[in-house]
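Consider the tokenized backbone below.
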């Protein structure tokens, strides 16, 4: 598969790790959806946090264009969305932590 840029591929590969990553899936209507996700901790370590202060562990933002190169993601990846969707990385309101 051809990637829009090295930056998108690098951040796609970092999903589940602490820091910034790109996620791909479909929204509730079945349309391609792309998100930037910031994780404060690695996937699976969320239950290890012991704090009395409320804090965001995961923050997601829907994106339309690649932050690295500017390509319109749905158009570029329209034939590959399902193969880029990974189990365990749900998008939107159905997300499991």
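A designed sequence for it:
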């Amino acid at each position: 598969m051809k990637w829009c840029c090295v930056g998108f591929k690098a951040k796609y590969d970092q999903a589940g790790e602490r820091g910034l990553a790109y996620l791909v899936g479909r929204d509730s209507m079945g349309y391609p959806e792309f998100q930037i996700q910031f994780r404060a901790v690695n996937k699976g370590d969320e239950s290890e946090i012991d704090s009395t202060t409320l804090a965001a562990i995961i923050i997601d933002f829907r994106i339309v264009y690649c932050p690295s190169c500017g390509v319109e993601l749905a158009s570029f990846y329209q034939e590959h969305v399902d193969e880029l969707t990974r189990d365990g990385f749900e998008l939107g309101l159905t997300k499991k932590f």
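The CA atoms of residues 9 and 53 lie 35 Å apart.
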